[in-house]
Recover the amino acids of this structure.
């Protein structure tokens, strides 16, 4: 694709496409490497990986590709492990455990991986690109990454968040529109007040920042890529589109749900993890979602529901899985990562050429 931007040049990629870093299994080293080998930027969603597994997966990615790649982590945020809310969560989850034939394993000793241990792996492994979600990175950590030759990318859902990230020293910002699947990256203000559509968010973010903006949310093909570039973005981040790729580690029932669902069948929920995230509506989302005000926050709820979600995958029960997905569902296809990237780039070129032709026709 001929659309070279500051971001593609600085990252050393040929296509202005970033594969979304979906934590929890979809972003296997095989998928990450396939994307990077196709000239885009593969991303490992590593938030839930213990440091030794993170190190192993980085090594596997490097075995499969010589291209640049990204590793994404969730920034730690204060949370309360309220015993009353934990007990209530257990009461809500027990009927699903009984239906799945599993026993409550009790309250975990810890609710999340140690971010700073994970971060040291990023430093020691000289990861080419590091992205983060749920806040701003301490300046001393950003400085360490830059001294290490790592490109730093933050996530924002509003212009205010974007300007805060730029002020704190990131190299680029992902503008996460309301259409995006998975966890909302909001860290300033209320999530409900930060549901800005991608088409509205991107040009405002571009105007406000001097660093590259990566458009995310509802972008599934070349038309979305062309639209984002026209709005001033220097790349797009596509998550849901890669979920159904051959190399994706998503459960086959998850892939089928994406391929069979429509744009009006997703919702933003706290039911699975305790943090707002967009996914395909299923029984668990609806039933537990009716009690969202009673459940504990992320990462507590995420840890408490882990056994239910794992058993659901083992037993092929998508009604209990966290089916994170954006709103571009009808555009999802079964293909390889390379085919998706090739289709998106050629489709963007055609869309941009077609738009230019229509503009000339109108002017004439």
């Amino acid at each position: 694709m001929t659309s070279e931007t500051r971001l593609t040049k600085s990252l050393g990629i040929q296509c202005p496409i970033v594969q979304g870093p979906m934590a929890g299994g979809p972003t296997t080293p095989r998928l990450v490497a396939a994307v990077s080998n196709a000239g885009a930027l593969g991303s490992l969603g590593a938030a839930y990986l213990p440091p030794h597994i993170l190190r192993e997966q980085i090594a596997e990615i490097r075995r499969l590709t010589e291209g640049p790649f990204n590793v994404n982590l969730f920034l730690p945020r204060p949370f309360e492990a309220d015993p009353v809310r934990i007990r209530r969560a257990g009461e809500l989850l027990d009927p699903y455990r009984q239906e799945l034939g599993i026993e409550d394993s009790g309250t975990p000793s810890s609710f999340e991986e140690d971010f700073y241990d994970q971060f040291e792996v990023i430093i020691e492994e000289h990861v080419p690109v590091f992205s983060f979600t749920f806040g701003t990175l301490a300046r001393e950590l950003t400085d360490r990454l830059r001294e290490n030759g790592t490109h730093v990318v933050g996530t924002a859902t509003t212009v205010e968040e974007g300007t805060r990230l730029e002020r704190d020293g990131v190299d680029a910002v992902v503008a996460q529109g309301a259409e995006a699947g998975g966890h909302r990256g909001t860290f300033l203000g209320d999530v409900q007040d930060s549901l800005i559509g991608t088409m509205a968010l991107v040009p405002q973010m571009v105007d406000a920042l001097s660093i590259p903006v990566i458009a995310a949310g509802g972008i599934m093909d070349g038309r979305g890529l062309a639209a984002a570039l026209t709005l001033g973005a220097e790349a797009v981040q596509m998550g849901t589109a890669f979920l159904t790729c051959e190399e994706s580690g998503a459960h086959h029932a998850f892939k089928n749900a994406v391929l069979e669902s429509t744009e009006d069948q997703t919702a933003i929920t706290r039911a699975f993890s305790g943090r707002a995230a967009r996914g395909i509506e299923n029984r668990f989302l609806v039933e537990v979602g009716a009690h969202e005000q009673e459940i504990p926050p992320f990462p507590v709820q995420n840890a408490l529901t882990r056994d239910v979600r794992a058993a659901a995958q083992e037993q092929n029960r998508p009604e209990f899985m966290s089916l994170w997905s954006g709103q571009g569902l009808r555009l999802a296809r079964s293909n390889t990562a390379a085919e998706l990237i090739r289709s998106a780039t050629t489709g963007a070129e055609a869309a941009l050429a077609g738009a230019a032709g229509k503009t000339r026709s109108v002017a004439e």
